[in-house]
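Summary: Need help interpreting a holo structure output

Steps to reproduce:
1. Submit the protein chain below together with the SMILES for nicotinamide-adenine-dinucleotide.
2. Request a joint structure prediction with the ligand placed.
3. Inspect the structure token block that comes back.

Expected: a single structure record containing both the chain and the bound molecule.
Actual: see attached output.

Input attached:
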Amino acid sequence: MQISVLGAGTMGGGIAYVAAVNGFDVRLYDMDDAAVDAGVARVQRDFDSAVARGRITRDDAQRAQARILTATDVPQAVKNAGVVVEAVVEDMAVKRDLLGRAEAEVADDTVIATNTSALSVTEIMSALQRPERGIGMHFFNPVRAMKLCELVVGLETSDQTIAAAESAAHAMGKETVRVRDVAGFATSRINAVIGNEAFFMLAEGVASAEDIDTAVKLGLNHPMGPLEMADMVGLDVRLAVLNELRRSLGDKYRPAPLMETYVRAGRLGRKVGRGVYDYDADGNRRPH
Ligand SMILES: NC(=O)c1ccc[n+]([C@@H]2O[C@H](COP(=O)([O-])OP(=O)(O)OC[C@H]3O[C@@H](n4cnc5c(N)ncnc54)[C@H](O)[C@@H]3O)[C@@H](O)[C@H]2O)c1
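--- attached output ---
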């Protein structure tokens, strides 16, 4: 079966990689040659690193890579697709326009999926003639390593679409959960709440940032502490998620004032060298 991936950025490249490694024919689309080339280079790095670590043989990598063809033209990209997975910028208008154009070119039973992190799947898929074929397939970064694909079920999504998306995700080596199309789905909502609580605790002086993170890692067995995680995601991104959760689900999601203050101060996390913690130019944490 062919999986057409629309958007060759961080997520699109990662989705193309796992699809190809698991035997799917892949079409990787982006809007111009430069964007496609950047995506192909990213996928190449995934293959090189998998070969270097002995996860895949060079022959298998070459065979998988040969299954990825590229396109800068939507009809060519989605022709023959069993599943279309959209992973372009997080912009409602862009996603609706692109998926509307894709739908015009695909077979009746083709699943049309979006990898949106936070937008309404129901609203994106209302751009389709047949919104029942639309669903969220929310992969995580880095796609090759993260085991989950959260299936986000829109208002009109049919059982047939859910089953087809589930079986494609399983065939791509992912485990799935089914989540209703409610702001924050399951993952982002839980993560935002834990991170927000950590900021309230920091402001209250419950413990130092390091000790809050250590407590959650060693006492609760989370691989990362909530404050280092917020720095990795970006405090501005986290704040936007909380504001959206608050708008949609209520005041329980009010962002911690300390997080807002950090964002106002430009302390956006690892990407700018400073958030809760300080980082060097390589993104490594500086000791206090
Ligand atoms: N990065 C993450 O951790 C993560 C995790 C889960 C979901 N997502 C979601 O995945 C999607 C993609 O995120 P990303 O991090 O890969 O972004 P990215 O910026 O790395 O890639 C986006 C790609 O979209 C392309 N694009 C932009 N406008 C376009 C248009 N009009 N038509 C076609 N292509 C266009 C760009 O050229 C780029 O290659 C977003 O919806 C994001 O919310 C991201």
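--- end attachment ---

Reviewer comment: The pocket of nicotinamide-adenine-dinucleotide is lined by residues 7-12, 30-31, 35, 87-90, 94, 98, 115-117, 140-141 (CB under 6 Å). DSSP finds twelve helices and eight strands in the chain.
Status: needs-info
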